[in-house]
Amino acid sequence: MDLAEELETTAQEVLGKLRSGEPFQSNWDTAAFIIFLIFLGTVLLLMLLVCTHCCCHSSCSRRASRPQKVHPRGVDNLALEP
């Protein structure tokens, strides 16, 4: 019952702030909300860039900058190439 009462109290406080027209009581509340929105926007932008990269990468053909060499064994030492 305590959890239900706490949730109800919190919901009433939030609804009361929304009804009053002033959801933020201080400048710190406003600053914290703006920082949260910037963080959320950054995350969404990064997700959009990842999705765009995945979609474009699968449909676009990229040319390799250097031809791929096939060697039967060993490791290429790229420092020796001119």
UniProtKB/TrEMBL annotation:
Gene Ontology CC: one annotated term: membrane
CDD domains (alphabetical): CASIMO1_SMIM22
Keywords: Membrane, Transmembrane, Transmembrane helix
Bias-annotated ranges (Basic residues): 63-72
InterPro entries with a match to the protein in the record: SIM_Modulators, SMIM5/18/22
Residue span of region Disordered: 61-82
Residue spans crossing the bilayer: 31-56
UniProt name for this protein: Small integral membrane protein 22 isoform X2
Organism: Callorhinus ursinus (Northern fur seal)
This protein's encoding gene: SMIM22
